[in-house]
Amino acid sequence: MSARDLIDPEMRAALDAMLEAIPGGYNSIPDIVKRREVSEQLAAARRLPPSPGIAISERTVPGPVGAPDITLRIYRPEAVPGPRPGIYFIHGGGMILGSARRDDGIASMLSEQLGATVVSVEYRLAPENPHPAHVEDCYAGLDWTAHHVSELDIDAGRIAIYGASAGGGLTIATALMARDKGYPAIRFQMPIYPMIHNGHDTPSSYEITDVGIWDRRTNIEAWQWYLGGGPADDYAVPALAKNLAGLPPTYIDVGTVDLFRDEDVAFATRLMHAGVPTELHVWPGAYHGAENTAPQAELSRRIWAGRIEALRRALA
Predict the structure, then answer these.
(1) Domains in the chain: how many in total?
(2) 231 lies in which domain range?
(3) Cα 179 from chain centroid?
(4) What is the CATH number of the domain that holds 134?
(5) 113-136 residue pLDDT tens
(6) Is residue 57 annotated as a catalytic residue, yes or no?
(7) Are 195 and 169 in contact (CB under 8 A)?
(8) Could you say which of 18, 41, 47, 130 has the lowest number of CB atoms within 10 Å?
């Protein structure tokens, strides 16, 4: 039986439509520049529109020492007075694709649903910029956000980090860096199907070879580009971090037909062993990013409802 046979039928219909338009999926395009172009076109075709009543602005802020400045996209619910909860948003894309602007719909939806100020970071991408560029950019943006909570109408005691896929791995890495530096205090983290292990040795990493979204070959390539031959330290590969104590309460979800399934379940278990309050959901039939590829599916609605409710509780 192929892994594709295990996909939720509603979600599979959307995936099949995408693969019919782009045979092999955009990850089969060898040239990274062209792959980014096709990825952006595909995202634009299914992008959620920005939520009404959300003011979107951009700020250029200092990047890491010796590195370029970074751009932050800021989403504020105009009808909700501050100080509001803050969500620091890290986009996905396997460390090689994606942009903050591409996730306007998701970031503004979180702002609207939770009455929160959302700050989304535009970090450098591999292979042009290997590790540690990504996490250093993410931490620099978080540091700036924490030092400007009054300007952003954010309650400093209610800051969460949210990210999916590569953004999920960077969510954990940024939380680790904040813990190690002692600043800022993070109330909650939500790494969604996070990309956290470069071993390629779990059962799910061998099972997911022909789904068409983030299969084994693509993952191996992305990790090679991301690490760029450099060391796989805790911030690059959070699954290797020996000490997880002191990380913020965590919500992780992943699908059963996702290459990251087993590394994410193992990491959630380690968080629990380290005394970190952890909520884990494994969604039967969901592939990587399925809730965005098939947003109208019943399972997608359940996935998003679980995330919104967990964030609402954590930031109350």
Answers:
(1) 1
(2) 3-314
(3) 19
(4) 3.40.50.1820
(5) 999 999 999 999 999 999 999 999
(6) no
(7) yes
(8) 41
Mean pLDDT of 126-149: 98
Helices (H), ranges, the chain: 9-21, 32-46, 104-114, 133-147, 149-152, 166-181, 203-207, 216-227, 261-273, 290-293, 298-314
Q: How far is CA 66 from CA 58, 62, 137, in A?
A: 22, 10, 11
The verdict on whether 258 is a catalytic residue reads yes
Number of CB atoms found within 10 A of residue 181's CB: 10
**Residue 288 is a catalytic residue:** yes
Mean pLDDT of the region 106-116: 96
Amino acid at 115: G
Q: Which helix (H) or strand (E) holds 77?
A: strand 70-77
Q: Given the residues 258, 262, 264, 300, select the one marked as catalytic.
A: 258
Token reading at 166: 């590569």
Look up tokens 């535009």; give the residue: 122
Q: Which two tokens stand for residue 144?
A: 């700036």
Residue with the two structure tokens 């679980």: 306
Residue 151: CA count within 13 A, CB half-sphere: 9
Note the pLDDT tens digit of each residue in 270-296. Answer: 999 999 999 999 999 999 999 999 999
**One of 108, 253, 288, 300 is an active-site residue; which one?**
288
Read off the tokens for 312.
Answer: 């609402």
Digit-coded pLDDT (tens) for 158-209: 999 999 999 999 999 999 999 999 999 999 999 999 999 999 999 999 999 9
Would you state the pLDDT for residue 158? 98
Q: What is the CA radius of gyration of the chain?
A: 18
What phi-psi label fits residue 229: left (phi over 0), alpha (psi between -120 and 50 degrees) or beta?
left
pTM (2 decimals)? 0.96
